[in-house]
Every structure is written in structure tokens, then in C-alpha cells.
Design goal:
By secondary structure, the chain is α/β, with parallel strands linked by helices. The protein has 16 helices and 17 strands. The strands form four sheets. Strands 9-10-8-7-6-5-4-1-11 form a nine-stranded mixed β-sheet, with helices on both faces. Strands 12-13-14 form a three-stranded antiparallel β-sheet.
């Protein structure tokens, strides 16, 4: 069953580390963008005839900067033009400071059953340093309001290895979030992306980042502490209580079909990858016309699909199954990657159990080295 991704490219304020297609100060475009996005949702619906949608994900940007009436029009259009499973996972990303009791109640009423809140850090000083609009108090108010609104599946996004962040601050962040008992925690190491404000500061030697040893110490502590507190690590950076793994994200890691709507949104459909324009004026003017929206279509070869199956699937702690590989590609896994698999096992980066291959603890630390073997 495929998934749908809806991109909302607006924010109250652009974070200093963010390289996603998003903009601050574009409130005048909210209505026109919503209209064009709805048109795209309608016009692409033919792709999903006779298919049941299992996951819907509103990401950004910050979807919750939009008035709930815009979000309601989008979600209603999806339900009108697509067959959505009664048990579908329907997620919306939100930043503290863009939520209130009325907004959360409206989101839950219109069908969202999972919310992903971008806290990033527990310390107000660090939040200010990375360009966030909220503080800890606002986050806590929003979190408790989400519970009262009926959300029983909440993810909290966290970041470590932030500029000037200490190990003790990261410990405090984790202990504080565990005490709230969200169903899911995503914990990512900061990556300095090109053309972001942080990238320019880093190039000028004006960004004080933790060294690699501290970065790894933070990551290992995260894994150990969350495991002790019944958060199962099911992907390199994602931890959940039993049964609350993100179904939508697993679509990406398992190379399953999904359709993206909105500015710069990517899709994977019938072994093709394609993505929309990153020019917001062009997106709005297209009014959902794919012949104008789509920038590039890539027809993936069997070799490319096999490669993606490996390096995306190995992100998950369950790894990949040789039986699944043969069922999907009609060729034994060993015939394609035996040399790489044997070498990685010898280096203690991979291990095998029954028909599955998965990263060792050392392999998680050196995951990029592993993935490169399958490119």
C-alpha cells in the first residue's frame, strides 16, 4: 500500500541548519499555494486508482504555520480523491510555537492521528543558538495540549552535536523527554549542509562543534538510555515504543511506492523517481499540471533498485532479508553482493542471522562506509 507526502514550504523563521525547501515571511502565498497543492492532489489521483493509501505525512517547513482551514481543505481533498485505509497513519510535523489547544483539537478532529514535534533541545540557550522560535516552556505547553486533544502517538525530534552543546546538556535533554513518555523519539546528529547559515559560519571557523569522539559518545548514550527505557531502536536515528514505529518512514527505507505533493516534493512510483520544481512561483502557476511541475524523471535500472534496497534497508536494525531480495529481484542476493557482504562481516560491520543481514554496533558508527559498498 503506497504512502502520500505533502510538503508545506513555510516557516515562521528559517533555522540556521536547515536546507529544506522552505521560506519565512511568505504569508501572502499561503492561500495560492494551498490552491495549487489541492489541484496537484486532485490531478495525480489517477495514479492511485484501485490502491489503498496506508500512510499520509504532512512535512515541511512547518505545516502548522498554515491556518487549519487550509490544512482541512488539503486533507479533505485526499479523502475525497483517494481510498485511505481506516487504520492509516496520518502524521503532521509541527514546531512548538505554532500550536495551541484550538489548533491541536482541529488537527485531531480532521483525521491526524500522529504528530511529530520538533523540539531539538531542552536548553533555551541552545534553541536560540540554532534559530528556533520556541523555548522549553512553549514546547511543554504544546506537548500537554496535544495529549489533551487526543494524540496518542507523538514523536519528538531531537538533535545532538549542536554548537557548544555539552554531554551533560544532551543527557538532560534525553532524561527530560523520557519523563514525558512520547511514543517515538528521533535523535539526529547535526549535519552541516551547504549554503545554510551554519555552513558559512563553519567555513569561517566561527562555529564551535563537538568533536567526533563527543558526537559518538552522545549517540552511544542515546542508544543505551532509550533501550533501558523501553524505546526500541528500529533505525539508525529512530526509537519507539512497541508498535509505534513510523510506518511512513519505513516506506522510504524499504523502497516502497509513495507520491509527493508540493514544492520540491519527491516521488517513487513504478520504479521511477521524480520530483517537483523548487521554484515557488512556478509551482503556484502550474496549478497541479505535472507537465510543468515535474523537473526530472529517473527510470531506475534493476542495479540501481538493488543498490537502494541494500543501503536503505540496512538503515533499519532489522536489516535486509535475502529472501525478500530474491522475491523482489528474482536473483539470489549472494549472486549480486556476496563479495561485499563477506568483506563487511569480516570487518565486523555487518552480521548475519538466519537469512537477514544487519549492521553491528560498529557498523552503525561507520554506516556511510557500509552503504558506500553498495553504491
Amino acid at each position: 500500500m503506497p504512502g502520500l507526502y505533502i510538503h508545506i514550504p513555510f516557516c515562521r523563521q528559517k533555522c540556521l541548519y536547515c536546507d529544506f525547501p522552505s521560506f519565512a515571511g511568505k504569508e501572502n502565498l499561503y492561500s495560492d499555494y494551498t490552491q495549487s497543492l489541492i489541484a496537484e492532489i486532485q490531478k495525480k489521483s489517477y495514479l492511485c486508482q484501485n490502491k489503498i493509501i496506508d500512510t499520509i505525512f504532512f512535512g515541511g517547513g512547518t505545516p502548522t504555520v498554515l491556518h487549519t482551514s487550509f490544512l482541512e481543505k488539503m486533507i479533505n481533498t485526499i479523502f475525497q480523491y483517494y481510498t485511505v485505509s481506516k487504520t492509516a497513519e496520518i502524521t503532521i510535523e509541527a514546531n512548538p510555537g505554532t500550536l495551541c489547544k484550538a489548533v491541536l483539537s482541529a488537527l485531531h478532529t480532521m483525521g491526524f492521528n500522529r504528530i511529530s514535534i520538533g523540539l531539538q533541545s531542552w536548553q533555551d540557550t541552545l534553541l536560540k543558538d540554532i534559530g528556533r522560535i520556541h523555548n522549553r516552556s512553549v514546547f511543554l505547553k504544546n506537548f500537554y495540549s496535544a495529549r489533551k486533544a487526543g494524540f496518542e502517538n507523538i514523536n519528538i525530534d531531537l538533535m545532538f552535536a549542536l554548537p557548544n552543546q555539552t554531554f551533560c546538556q544532551w543527557q538532560e535533554t534525553l532524561y527530560s523527554i523520557i519523563a514525558l513518555q512520547p511514543e517515538h523519539i528521533s535523535a539526529y546528529s547535526l549535519i552541516i549542509e551547504e549554503e545554510t547559515p551554519f555552513f558559512h559560519l563553519w567555513k569561517q571557523n566561527r562555529l564551535s562543534l563537538p568533536d567526533e569522539a563527543l558526537d559518538r559518545a552522545m549517540y552511544h548514550f542515546t542508544k543505551e538510555l532509550l533501550e533501558k527505557n523501553h524505546y526500541h531502536q528500529y533505525e539508525i536515528s529512530n526509537f519507539s515504543k512497541k508498535g509505534f514505529e513510523s510506518r511512513h518512514n519505513q516506506i522510504y527505507w524499504k523502497i516502497l511506492p509513495y507520491i509527493g505533493f508540493g514544492l520540491g516534493a519527491h516521488s517513487f512510483w513504478e520504479n521511477k523517481r521524480f520530483y517537483n520544481t523548487y521554484q515557488i512561483a512556478k509551482y503556484i502557476q502550474a496549478q497541479g499540471d505535472s507537465s510543468v511541475l515535474i523537473e526530472e524523471i529517473e527510470h531506475l535500472t534493476p542495479t540501481q533498485l538493488q543498490s537502494e534496497f541494500m543501503f536503505m534497508g540496512l538503515r533499519m536494525t532489522e536489516g535486509i532479508s535475502s529472501m525478500d531480495f530474491q522475491k523482489r529481484f528474482h536473483i539470489p542476493l549472494a549472486c549480486v553482493y556476496q563479495k561485499q557482504l563477506s568483506a563487511l562481516i569480516k570487518q565486523n560491520l555487518l552480521q548475519k542471522q538466519n537469512d537477514r543481514y544487519f549492521l553491528t554496533s560498529r557498523g552503525m558508527d561507520l554506516s556511510n562506509t557500509v552503504f558506500c559498498q553498495f553504491l
